[in-house]
Amino acid sequence: xxxxxxxxxxxxxxxxxxxxxxxxxxxxxxxxxxxxxxxxxxxxxxxxxxxxxxxxxxxxxxxxxxxxxxxxxxxxxxxxxxxxxxxxxxxxxxxxxxxxxxxxxxxxxxxxxxxxxxxxxxxxxxxxxxxxxxxxxxxxxxxxxxxxxxxxxxxxxxxxxxxxxxxxxxxxxxxxxxxxxxxxxxxxxxxxxxxxxxxxxxxxxxxxxxxxxxxxxxxxxxxxxxxxxxxxxxxxxxxxxxxxxxxxxxxxxxxxxxxxxxxxxxxxxxxxxxxxxxxxxxxxxxxxxxxxxxxxxxxxxxxxxxxxxxxxxxxxxxxxxxxxxxxxxxxxxxxxxxxxxxxxxxxxxxxxxxxxxxxxxxxxxxxxxxxxxxxxxxxxxxxxxxxxxxxxxxxxxxxxxxxxxxxxxxxxxxxxxxxxxxxxxxxxxxxxxxxxxxxxxxxxxxxxxxxxxxxxxxxxxxxxxxxxxxxxxxxxxxxxxxxxxxxxxxxxxxxxxxxxxxxxxxxxxxxxxxxxxxxxxxxxxxxxxxxxxxxxxxxxxxxxxxxxxxxxxxxxxxxxxxxxxxxxxxxxxxxxxxxxxxxxxxxxxxxxxxxxxxxxxxxxxxxxxxxxxxxxxxxxxxxxxxxxxxxxxxxxxxxxxxxxxxxxxxxxxxxxxxxxxxxxxxxxxxxxxx
Length: 674
Prior knowledge:
Layout (H helix, E strand, L loop, with lengths): L11 E2 L4 E2 L3 E9 L3 E10 L3 E7 L1 E5 L3 E9 L5 E10 L5 E6 L8 E4 L16 E6 L13 E5 L12 H7 L6 E2 L21 E2 L4 H5 L2 H6 L4 E4 L3 E3 L7 E7 L5 H14 L3 E6 L22 H7 L11 E3 L5 E3 L16 H8 L4 H7 L4 E4 L7 H14 L5 E4 L9 E2 L2 E2 L10 E2 L2 H11 L5 H14 L2 H4 L3 E3 L8 H4 L9 H4 L9 H17 L3 E5 L25 H19 L2 H4 L1 E8 L2 E7 L18 E7 L5 E6 L2 E5 L11 E4 L5 E5 L3 E7 L1
Parallel strand pairs: 2-11, 12-15, 12-27, 13-14, 15-18, 18-21, 21-22, 22-25, 26-27, 33-35
Antiparallel strand pairs: 1-3, 3-7, 4-5, 4-8, 6-7, 8-9, 8-11, 9-10, 16-17, 19-20, 23-24, 28-29, 29-30, 30-35, 31-32, 31-34
Helix pairs in contact: 7-8, 9-10, 14-15
């Protein structure tokens, strides 16, 4: 039998991503009649070199052989892909390659070697070792943090809100100002302009400041704000002025006040940084002449000098029309040349964007569309941010796929090697959680995929992943649990909501998703309104206003449950930085534990004196009552049916006494060792 499993210490040690210059031991079992066993590997990032190492026979039995090889990883961060080659009894070479969604990361025999090129179809698969900078560390406050994401215009008006003042603050033809906070988002725009995402409800930074105690009650210690800089649209990804908060949000003074009040409550602010493109209606591009000075657009047309001209790439079409590179072809979002030295000075230099906002108290930056920024730009962003914050600034990237082997523009990206991001947004986490809870994948596949990410990401980064289940760019999880049909067009999407007959089930699934966020490794990220079951399909319906003062009884119950679960993580640091082990992954049931070692030391070698030393989470995704036997830190399903356990989310246990517990359909329980 051929066998290698990358997540088994019997076949690869140490586990997971490894620092530069460290050693890794690999083991491979083969049938007794196999010969010429070789480790094949390729290493690099933007280019790769291929090598073969003969493996040593270290054990031989009648029916099998065991081979071993020790490799010292290079001192340059990169990706190492490996597989095995051998000669069979018919004197042919075959390969043992990785297989997807296996329990321990095992493989299979295949006639061809893996394809690992950045622009190749990755099949068959190779095993991956992420080789990261040995000095890579991430901020302590991000590890296992509780994050709340706010779309500023839609969260809360402040107590002094005045619709006339809002309307008078910026009179523009394309803008729509909502008098009624509770009405739905605009989907048509004005007749003269069409839809431009330029409708405003008047949510403000002071409105957020007034709700900080609400956030603290659900355990939040990091607040991530979607773009706050001046812009034409309400989403503000079309930046007009990087150095000033949009006056509609309250301006720079409102930011200073929010930062000051947040810090007093132990809350760190992360701001959204959009550096791949600006707005066409901005002081830099200034296509419509709304800003003083010569922008890049007019400079290209007239030849007049502009300090921003080198930031953009202009050309003329075959018809002689002026054109320019823009984000995904949207003319309102002209692409920036991130390699322009004057642009980089503006972003990273003294008095520039990073310096300005860290000086004002921002504790981190979330990079919009990281895969559309050059690696060198993100490396300089990391250097700049860390230098202005004594190493404590948090850098998170928007990456939708596996960031450890992300490819874009024909190359692997330097995203998880310790030189760019601290971590990334957890869209892969979201997909796995929603797929499991919706019944699209089994617990075994869920566990295999999550363990694969844990294996490929550096531990410093994995404990900082922004584990989300909703965001401004995807449908809300509550809506998705109703399994809506994917329809096109805003008129049809506006009508999508959770049917009354599915509301209870979707509520239970939302609570299970939140339990996974609380229990699993990483920073749990709540998108505003998820804690009260806000409904909404794709943009802009996932950006509706928070219904302050109109919560239903069911929404209030959900909020209380979320507060209780959040408190569990706040009071038990083991759920932030503790070790991890899967205890059970079988069909519709899943169990894992977070724990400290026998000396109460966490995954990073830090002594933890507060809270429990072990917490177990058991999940029952099925539509049937499920029963489990718990003994120590072991959990196994049982067929006998004890008296149904009172449905509690959190149950204390002593870690010694064995007991049986039952879970209702679509439910979970945290077992907290006392």
